[in-house]
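pls read this stuff:
=====
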Amino acid sequence: MEDLLIVGTTQNDTRVYLSELSSFTLNENGIAGRGGLYLYEECQDAASAGIRVLAGVPDVGAAYRILDLMGVRTA
């Protein structure tokens, strides 16, 4: 996992993150895909690798817009 670009909190205090994820990290979470920018949250599910991927995003601007639509407060 690369450096976090965005960290935010939903209305129910769930932390949401944006960073680049590698194809290895995606595969560890059961997602067949290439590395890139992804929105995700922490997940304690035993079947996950500690995160739940919510969405792939094309750029940081799109990520901010999605977070805004979700009502996420960014730090």
